[in-house]
TrEMBL record:
This is 4Fe-4S ferredoxin-type domain-containing protein. Residues 136-170 form the 4Fe-4S ferredoxin-type domain. It comes from viral metagenome.
């Protein structure tokens, strides 16, 4: 009866004159320096170093399988029993790795094969790992590194550090791997497919009506939440390939221009603003080309509006331009204007970036980049010595009246067209400062120089137009900020008058349809 290996719990037979099996060091060993594997058959080397019988195919140095004279790649050994499969069966199994042969990964729901002497697949940490500090990727074949860190054969194109694909001499970017079969397309075909992602290759997004490719190990495209997402709280953007963050939050390569923190575009080392990414092909145009076209928006690049006869560019994924209803719309009831920026409202209803100084006012204005986010009115008031304020013309006295009213009262609307609810009666006539109290419209007009240069007939026509919009009672306080007297005293007198008129309205003491009070005329 053959002797057993003396190692505990080992049932294998001891080899030759030793008391151990081949796995535990028994039998003759490979003579190659540093190799501890067993020598094969009557040779003095292991399989890896050329021992045992070799494949008879010309140029092949692999070892022959079992009782055949060829290696597994050339048809030697037992074959997979699945119809049409030419691959070799694994060890004691009747099938190849693809069809379930060999050890499987122990991770729940994973169907991949376990690597080497480990019990996991590559994706779950099985097999030899890359030796670079901090890298958990699997090493490639006989190399000690992953593809990213230089493992495996490299692309033969001069200066390219990427790994060559499978049996090709080039990386994907330089033509390695199978290519898409669509005429004129040079992109690489997706795994187990004969087309690239753009032409339908690879797994598709499961969202109804979506034809885009699914990203990574997810079942959705980037637009519908597939792929790796940015780790920043509340950010829904996809993470850049080599990082855990999106480009907005610092992921991926950055622009090389000093002081610029934006992400570099495509295969360039600069952001769009500094010339990175693809540019418009129109002679003399420096703008970036849009989507998969070779032109910028202004020259017809990107998606266009589907409205017949319209050549404007479509907004986002709406297939229409802003004028024809594309892009997000204002959420205010009855409003059809487009929402501004990342807000849900149009400018008229408070959308877009607002001035931080007057944002709480009823008539807050949009902030402007040229005034550091402030509206022109507030910028001139807050920074009078700034060079931009010195060239900015404003109705300074009217602004001072407005600010004084806002400091003492709530609900006043300033310098906005009159409108009537549920009726298209909006007109271009404006009142400097107004507030509707019960059925009376209290109006304050800042009449510089007492409007001495105005034609009285024009004033009468103005009143007639205003009455067409509001058929209730009117009280006008005509305030002249010019002439003799201190401005502070005049403003205090104006505040007293406004308080008095509000009290009269609340007690129904104003009986006339129109009252005009003139201060400092």
């Amino acid at each position: 009866m053959p002797k057993k290996c003396v190692e505990p719990e080992c049932d294998k037979r001891s080899q030759g004159k030793t008391d151990k099996c081949i796995s535990h060091g028994g039998g003759p060993r490979c003579i190659e320096s540093g190799c501890v594997k067993g020598a094969r058959n009557k040779s003095d080397k292991c399989k890896a170093h050329g021992g045992g019988s070799r494949c008879v195919e010309d140029g092949c140095a692999k070892s022959a399988r079992y009782n055949s004279d060829k290696c597994a790649a050339h048809g030697g050994g037992r074959r997979c029993i699945v119809d049409g499969c030419p691959k070799g069966a694994i060890d004691k199994y009747d099938t190849c790795i693809t069809h379930g042969g060999g050890k499987r990964c122990i991770v729940s729901s994973c169907e991949k094969s376990a690597r080497g002497k480990t019990d996991r697949c590559k994706a779950h940490g099985g097999g030899p790992r890359c030796i670079v500090d901090g890298c958990s990727n699997g090493s490639i074949d006989k190399y000690e590194k992953c593809i990213t860190h230089g493992g495996g054969p490299r692309c033969i194109v001069d200066g390219c550090p990427k790994g060559a694909i499978d049996k090709y001499e080039n990386c994907k970017a330089h033509g390695g791997g199978p290519r898409c079969i669509v005429d004129g397309c040079q992109k690489s075909a997706r795994k187990n497919r004969d087309r690239c992602v753009a032409h339908g290759g690879g797994p598709r997004c499961i969202e109804e009506g979506c034809t885009k490719g699914a990203k990574g190990n997810t079942d959705r495209c980037i637009t519908h939440g597939g792929g790796t997402r940015c780790i920043v709280d509340d950010c829904k953007n996809s993470a850049h390939i080599t990082s855990e963050k999106c480009i907005t939050h610092g992921g991926g390569p950055r622009c090389i221009v000093e002081g610029c923190s934006k992400g570099a575009q495509g295969r360039t080392d600069k952001c769009v603003a500094h010339g990175g990414g693809r540019r418009c092909v129109v002679n003399g145009c420096q703008k970036s080309s849009r989507n998969q076209t070779d032109k910028c928006k202004a020259h017809g690049g990107g998606e266009r509006c589907v409205q017949i006869g319209c050549t404007n560019s479509a907004v986002d994924n709406s297939f229409k331009c802003i004028a024809h209803g594309g892009g997000p719309r204002c959420v205010a009831s009855g409003c059809t204007k487009s929402a501004i920026g990342k807000t849900y409202k149009c400018k008229a209803h408070g959308g877009g970036q607002r001035c931080p100084n007057c944002i709480t006012w009823l008539d807050s204005r949009s902030g402007k980049k040229q005034y550091d986010g402030y509206c022109a009115t507030c910028f001139k008031q807050l920074f009078p010595d700034d060079y931009r304020s010195k060239v900015l013309y404003l109705h300074t006295k009217e602004i001072r009246v407005r600010n004084t009213i806002n400091e003492n009262f709530e609900g006043f609307i300033h310098d906005k067209p009159l409108y009537t609810g549920h009726c298209d009666c909006t007109m271009r006539r404006r009142i400097d400062h107004r507030k509707l109290i019960d059925a009376t419209l209290l109006c304050i007009e800042t009449d510089e120089f007492a409007h001495k240069r105005y034609d009285p007939k024009d004033e009468e026509l103005r009143y007639d137009d205003l009455f067409m919009v509001h058929s209730g009672k009117w009280i006008f306080i005509r305030f002249n900020p010019d002439g003799k007297g201190d401005m502070v005293d005049k403003l205090n007198r104006l505040i007293e008058e406004i308080h008095f008129q509000i009290m009269r309205i609340q007690h129904s003491e104003n009986t006339e349809l129109l009252e005009v009070i003139k201060l400092f005329y």
